[in-house]
């Protein structure tokens, strides 16, 4: 009897504390929410469609689309990044560039070469992790490159268009100044995580893009 009474008290007290905490944080604005398999919590937030209220910096706004949490890029939500994992302790996100993924998936007949370096799609607080990511470089060439005999260049599977190539670079250094230029070709640099061995086999470019890459974030200043 006394024991169940104690349990009731403990339960009641923890409930009241939780309610108070939620109120203090602005009516549950920053209470964790679920999207797909992921828990979205501070500094990220999902908009509340009923109240339409904002819960913080737009940089950290997450749109939940069919169970996939998405953060916007510089070019908006349509060319946003799907979040496949979040580590709140490490301030790290694993994301997939949906635009590139869809373009490559649809490229059985026509070629769609990523035309923007990933680095230009992201601004602070997000940063492409320079330690874990590797480079994948896509080439859109006006003529077969002189370095065609270079065996690191892999021809893309692009129907009958043949001036599209991809190759594995080194570690993504974040400076974006790798020596990737090939005469007559436009180079696009995309980070990928690669296989667990750290290998990047450029001929698996669709899988590499779908595997995503790592972003880190800096927390917004307190009070925003
Ligand atoms: C959730 O996780 C399961 C198992 O890991 C996976 O098969 C599924 O695709 C995931 N769903 C989403 C929406 O990411
Ligand atoms: C997600 O991240 C956690 C650790 O942060 C890790 O244990 C887990 O394997 C990751 N899941 C995927 C699908 O990458
Ligand atoms: C290659 O670049 C040209 C010029 O920017 C563009 O018109 C063409 O669509 C690109 N090719 C592919 C396959 O993306
Ligand atoms: C590629 O193939 C399509 C259909 O098979 C054809 O219409 C087109 O002219 C071809 N393009 C080139 C550059 O050969
Ligand atoms: C991407 O970055 C590389 C290296 O900085 C640069 O040479 C290239 O022109 C850039 N590509 C595009 C499409 O802006």
UniProtKB/TrEMBL annotation:
Residues 1-21 form the signal peptide. It is found in: Membrane. The lineage of its organism: Eukaryota, Viridiplantae, Streptophyta, Embryophyta, Tracheophyta. Keywords: Signal. This is Wall-associated receptor kinase galacturonan-binding domain-containing protein. The keyword Signal applies. Its main location: membrane. The keyword Lipid metabolism does not apply. It is a single-pass membrane protein. It comes from Brachypodium distachyon (Purple false brome). GO terms for molecular function: polysaccharide binding. InterPro entries: WAK_GUB. Residues 29-97 form the Wall-associated receptor kinase galacturonan-binding domain. GO terms for cellular component: membrane.
């Amino acid at each position: 009897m006394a024991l169940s009474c104690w349990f009731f008290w403990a339960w009641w007290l923890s409930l009241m504390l939780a309610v108070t905490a939620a109120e203090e944080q602005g009516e549950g604005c920053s209470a964790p929410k679920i999207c797909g398999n992921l828990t979205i919590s501070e500094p990220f937030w999902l908009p509340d469609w009923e109240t339409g209220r904002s819960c913080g910096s737009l940089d950290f706004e997450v749109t939940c689309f069919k169970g996939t949490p998405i953060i916007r890029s510089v070019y908006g939500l349509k060319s946003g990044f799907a979040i496949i994992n979040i580590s709140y302790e490490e301030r790290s996100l694993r994301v997939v560039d949906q635009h590139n993924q869809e373009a490559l998936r649809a490229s059985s007949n026509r070629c769609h070469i990523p035309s923007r370096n990933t680095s230009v799609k992201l601004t602070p607080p997000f940063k492409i992790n320079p330690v874990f990511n590797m480079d994948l470089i896509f080439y859109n060439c006006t003529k077969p490159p002189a370095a065609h005999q270079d065996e690191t260049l892999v021809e893309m599977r692009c129907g009958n268009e043949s001036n599209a190539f991809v190759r594995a670079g080194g570690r993504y250094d974040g400076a974006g100044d790798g020596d990737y230029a090939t005469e007559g070709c436009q180079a696009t640099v995309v980070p990928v995580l690669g296989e667990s061995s750290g290998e990047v086999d450029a001929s698996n470019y669709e899988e590499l893009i779908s595997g995503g890459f790592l972003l880190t974030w800096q927390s917004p200043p307190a009070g925003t």
